[in-house]
Amino acid sequence: xxxxxxxxxxxxxxxxxxxxxxxxxxxxxxxxxxxxxxxxxxxxxxxxxxxxxxxxxxxxxxxxxxxxxxxxxxxxxxxxxxxxxxxxxxxxxxxxxxxxxxxxxxxxxxxxxxxxxxxxxxxxxxxxxxxxxxxxxxxxxxxxxxxxxxxxxxxxxxxxxxxxxxxxxxxxxxxxxxxxxxxxxxxxxxxxxxxxxxxxxxxxxxxxxxxxxxxxxxxxxxxxxxxxxxxxxxxxxxxxxxxxxxxxxxxxxxxxxxxxxxxxxx
Length: 266
Fold this sequence. Notes:
By secondary structure, this protein is α/β, with parallel strands linked by helices. The chain has one domain. Helix content is 48%, strand content 12%. The protein contains 11 helices and 9 strands. A 5-stranded mixed beta sheet has the order 1-2-5-4-3, with helices on both faces. Strands 6-7 form a two-stranded antiparallel sheet. A two-stranded parallel sheet has the order 8-9. The chain starts with a helix and ends with a helix.
């Protein structure tokens, strides 16, 4: 768990450094979940949730400042060679000097199986993205894995679900977002049910934990279902899953060429 704590410390140091330089950036991913665990930090660790990397999101209008700050002030190496066309259009990728620590900085949006927009949203929370988007980041994964289920469980335990306020999962925002995008709606709704089912088998969770997770999922699903749907949503819903409803994502995270692209130049 020492590695996880080191990653949290590094993420906080970086986001503070960026803030001091006038750069708007926020932590996302599992590291942000760990920061938002609040009274459930021990449980997050008891679930065996190790952290492996640090990701940020920032605004594309500050891209030049971001690249300069990481390379000149923080002494990271920037990846500039890509075998995937368009890879660097919406992100910057950096490695530390040893090539062992990787940082992705997404710009304006997170484009994975579904797209989460961050324009005018980053200022709502610090040092991480808003907890609402943090939950959506986990639930937009079509092939959700155990790590993301555990992160989702902790977010639901550590935060209330309801109307917008600081540190609350904004059910209104989620339901309105999904009411115009059937594909995103289907993935989130399906994953919420998966989380409810899978967490019942986690021995680290108490019966009270499991009941609370189920109750908050039910509350969020109620908001989602009751929100009036757009014509666009209804037309796409009539097609259903007979056509792919999500974006394919290339697994660049495991590609050794990224690290090698940096190290080979040294």
